[in-house]
Amino acid sequence: MSFNIRVGSANDGDNHWNKRKSLALGRIQAFDPDLLGLQECRDDVQAAFIRASLPDYHFLGIHRQGSGDTALEMAPLLFRKSAFVLLDRGHFWLSETPEVPGSKSWNSVYPRTVSWVRLACQPTGTVFTYVNTHFDYEPAAVDGDAHCLRQWLDLTRVQSPIILTGDFNANKDSNAYRLMTDDGVLIDAFRQIHPNEKDDGTFHAFGKLGAMAAIDWILVSDHFRVLEAQIDQSRQGNLFPSDHYPITAVVDWKTVLARRGADDSTSFQHANRSTRGALHTISGGRSGTGSVKNYTRQTCSSTAVPRPD
Predict the structure, then answer these.
(1) Global confidence as pTM
(2) N or C: which end of the chain has fewer CB within 10 A?
């Protein structure tokens, strides 16, 4: 499940966080995901409410930093404690210097983060990497963010299957979407189930947009088969859970030998429990100030990329 919950400090009038937080929580609990990726979760009373309300999940996220009131925003990921064993975790910034906290590039308005975890499914022990992010909305930054993330994913997928969730601030006719999906390495879960569906918008600005924008995606590597995918358009009259609708997917392992090259082949057994997709960033603690892990001094560029391990 991927869900931009809209930062709680925003002056949203009748749709202020204090009025809609129970409705937002209710949509999460209704889907009951194993994996949950959130965006615009501020590390104050908003994140505290999520943590307290979802005690069966590990909550991991990092402050995006930068100047001003938005520095406490996170794109956290959550995963069900009983479903997975945490093997590794990390985060980085979408910039030319991804190991530098608070860094930004390509005229990005705000610093933007990626959080990831490497998880082993219980009880089978099959391993995958879950990733959650929130791209900037400046067009040049969207493209830069996509290139930076894709370079990291290309290194990571050699080691493990991938599930990616996020608010990408780009529609599905964008360069960023094509970069992430055109070669078939990552598959759009929603379009896998609804290949002819044109109404896959999620951002609606609390019902103010005539045509919703399809900027929230769940992408999976071809190790997975998608069983279900939906956009949850629930609301209570004019009260919305957020200015985005959450997007959900149910995926399972393919029962095939996945071969990535002459030197790398991995067999995956059918998992007893489907992985319900909804990713949430990982935090080094309640303050959200975990360390930068597993990075060499490299940049997101055409010749140098951050290493995932």
Answers:
(1) 0.86
(2) C
Which CATH fold would you assign to the domain 2-277?
Deoxyribonuclease I; Chain A (3.60.10)
CA distances in angstroms from 8 to 69, 227, 252, listed in the order given:
12, 33, 34
Nearest 10 degrees: CA dihedral of 140, 143, 149, 151?
A: -110
- The three-state DSSP-derived secondary structure of 139-196 is HHHHHHHHHHHHHHHHHHCCCCCEEEEEECCCCCCCHHHHHHHCCCCEEEHHHHHCCC
The model's pLDDT over 272-294, given as tens digits with 9 standing for 90+, comes to: 344 444 332 222 233 333 333 34
Residue 7 CB contacts under 8 Å (≥ 6 apart), including other chains: 17, 40, 41, 42, 46, 70, 73
Phi-psi region of 151 (alpha: psi -120 to 50; beta: other; left: phi over 0): alpha
The domain locations on the chain are 2-277
